[in-house]
Amino acid sequence: MQMGTGSLWWRLQRAKHRKRRELNKQSMEILVDKVTLFYLIPFLIIGLLVVRDLLQAHNELLTAVVNDLSANVIVISFLTIQLGLFQKKPVFGYSSSEQLLIHLPHQRQVILRYFWLLKGGTLLIVHAVVFALLYLLLPLPLTTALAFFFWVSLFRGLMLIIRWSIFCWHGVRGYIFRFLASGAIIIAVIALSISTGIDRINLIGLILLTLMSAQVIGFFMIEAVSDFDRVVAMNDHFQFRTFFVKAVVGKVLPLETPKFPRLSLRNKARAKPAPMGKTSRLYRRVMWSEAVKEQALILQTYFSVLGLIVFLSTQGFIFLRMGLVLGLVLHARLFSLLFRLMYQAPLLKSIPLRIKRYVVPYQFVMNLITLAVVAVGLAMMQLMYQVELVDGVMILIVAYVFTNEWLRYRVEESLNKQKPLSTTMIFSILWLIGYIIVYRYHTIIAGFAGVVWISYIWDSLKMKRGASE
Amino acid sequence: MALLSIRDLSVKQGETLALDGLNLAINEGELVALIGHNGAGKSTLMKTMMGLLDFSKGEIVLKNYNLSEDPLNYKRRVVYIPEQPFLLTELTVYQHFQLYIDSYQRDEQVLTPVIEHYLQQFEIQDKRDAFPLSLSKGMRQKVQLICGLLIDADLLIIDEPFIGLDVYAQRTLVNVLTDKKACGQTILLTTHQFDQLDTIMDRYVMLHEGKVIEEGSDYQLDALKRRFD
C-alpha cells in the first residue's frame, strides 16, 4: 500500500524529532550531571523569584513604560519582522531526506505546504507561551498582551515565505535584494515611528497588503525562487546541531558550515588575484572573508541597533541614551565575536600569528562603524532634542575610546589560553555597574567614562597578557 | 636535555580520556614516529601540541617555552602539517606560503627559491595562484606540506604525511624528510606506512588508549611490523 505524502512527511519529522531529542539527552548527560541539576533547579526558581521581586519593586516605572509602549504596539510588532530575516538556517527544515521523497511519487510543492503549516503552527504556540509568560511576569494589561500576540504572530507569519526566499538569494542578485529589503524595512520603521493617526494606519495597511501579496505570490512561485541545493546542504548541516549538541561537540570538533559562492563579482575577481605587496593584505583578506561569511549576523545586528535607536528616540531622551549604550554594547560584542570566529580557523590557531598586525586593521574598521553607529544616534538626538554640539562630540570620543578598550580586552582575552570564567564574569559585572551609572545619573558621558576608567584599572590589575605581542 | 618534553598530559573529550597522563621526550635531531591503532590518540596528541585542543592536566615544553604560559614563542618553534589540510579558502596557494613566512618571521626573499623548488618537486608549480577550492585533495595536501616544510622550525610535526599523496609525491616527501633530518631537523610524525620510513626513522613510540605503551629504535621496527601484520 502506498503511503500518502502527508503521512510519510510526518513520519520523517517525528523520526528527526526523536533523533534530536536523543542527541539532546546524551549531550545533557555529558554537560550536566544529575547532582548538579538537582541543585541547579532550586537556584533557577529562586533566581526567577528574585527577578519577579525586582520587577515588582520597579512596578511604577514598568507600568509607565508599558503604557507608553502600548501606543506603539504595532511599531514594535513590525520591528519583529526583521528578527531572523537574514539567517543562516532556512526557514523550513527541508533536508536531503525530504529531497529523497521527490524521487518517489511525491510532489515538492505539497511537502513545502506541510512545512509551512508546521512552521506557522509552531510560531503560534511559541508566541502564545512567550506572551503568556510576559503577561504573568510584567504588569501588562490583557488587551496589550493579546495585541502584541496578534500583531507579532501576524507579521512573523506573513514573513515565512519572504524569509525563505531571502535565504535562497545569493550571489550579486541576492546582495542587491537583501540591500533593497533592508532599506525597505528601515524606511518603514522610520515612517511608522514618526507618522501619527490616520497616516500610521494607512502605512500599516499598505505594509500588510504588500506582505500578504508577497506571501501568496512567493508561495506559488516557491519552486522558482528556491535554491534547493543550498537549502538541503544547510539543513543537513544544522538539523541535528542543537544548542546542547553544539555545547558538547563544538569545543572538540569545530565543524565548518557548508560554503557557497556568495558574491559572484568577488569570485570573478578571485580568478586573477592581485599580487601581494604587503602581507597585511593577507589579514585583510581573511577578515573580509569572515565578514562576508557572517554578513547575515552583521546585518541583523545593525538592523536591531538602528531600529532600537530610531524607536527609542521617539520615546524620550533618556530612552534614546539607553538605546545608544545598548547599541554600542551589541556592536562591540558582535565585533569581538567575529574576531573570535575568525581565529577559530584551525590554520590560524596552529601558527604563531602576529596578532598586533591582525588586530590593528580590524580595530580600524570597527572604529569606523562605531563612529557611524554613534553618529546616527547623535543625529537623532540633534534632530529631536537639540543636544549641544559639544556634548555630542564628547559622546563620540568617549564611545570611540570605550569600544576600542572593549575590543582590545575581549580579543586579547580570547587569544589567551588561560581564560578563567571569573575574569569574564567580573568584567561583565563591572560593565553592569557602568550601565547603572548611565541610568542613575542620566549622563551618558559619566557612564562611559566610568566604564573606561574601571576597565583601565582592571587592565592594570590583570596579570600577564599571554598570547599578545 | 630533550628538545620537547611532554609531562603527564591528559586530554578529555566529553567523558572520554583521549590522552591519559602521557609522557614523551624528543631529543634534538631525532625523527620519531608515533604509531598505534586508530583512536589511540596520535592525532589528538599532535593537535594538543599545537594548541588546537585544550588539555586538562600536564605540560608541554619546547626549549623552555611552555605552551600554556607562552604559546606565541612556543608556536614560533613548531610547525605542524595536519592530516586533513586546513587551508583558508580566501587565500591562494602562494598567499598561504606568505602567511606562514610572515607568521614565523622569515625572509620572503630568501625563501622564494625554496618555494619554487618545492613547487617543482611536488609538481604543482602551475597552481601557485589557485585557490584551495579549485585543487584536488592531493594537491591541497601538497600545499599544506610545502607550507610546513618551508619553515625550518625546531620541531616539525606531521600527521599521516603519506595519505592522499601519489607514489611520486610520497617518494619526494621521503627524500625531503631525509634531507631535513640530515640537516639536524627534529621531526615527529604519525604513520601506518612504516616501510616508507625504514631508512630514516630513529625511534618509534607506540600509543594505546592515550598512553605510551612501548618505545623502540629503528632496528626493532621489523619485529614491530611483523606484529602488526
TrEMBL record, chain A:
Where are the membrane-spanning stretches? Answer: 30-49, 69-86, 116-138, 144-163, 175-195, 201-222, 297-318, 324-343, 364-383, 389-409, 421-438, 444-461
| Protein keywords | Membrane, Transmembrane, Transmembrane helix
Name of this chain's protein: Uncharacterized protein
Species assigned in the record: Streptohalobacillus salinus
**According to the entry, what is the taxonomic lineage of the organism?**
Bacteria, Bacillati, Bacillota, Bacilli, Bacillales
UniProtKB/TrEMBL annotation, chain B:
Q: Which domain of life is it from?
A: Bacteria
Q: SUPFAM superfamilies of this UniProt entry?
A: P-loop containing nucleoside triphosphate hydrolases
List, alphabetically, the SMART domains matched. Answer: AAA
Tell me which UniProt keywords the record has, alphabetically: ATP-binding, Nucleotide-binding, Transport
Instruction: Cite the ABC transporter domain residue spans from the record.
Output: 4-228
GO molecular function terms listed in the Swiss-Prot or TrEMBL record: ATP binding; ATP hydrolysis activity
Protein name in the entry:
ABC-2 type transport system ATP-binding protein
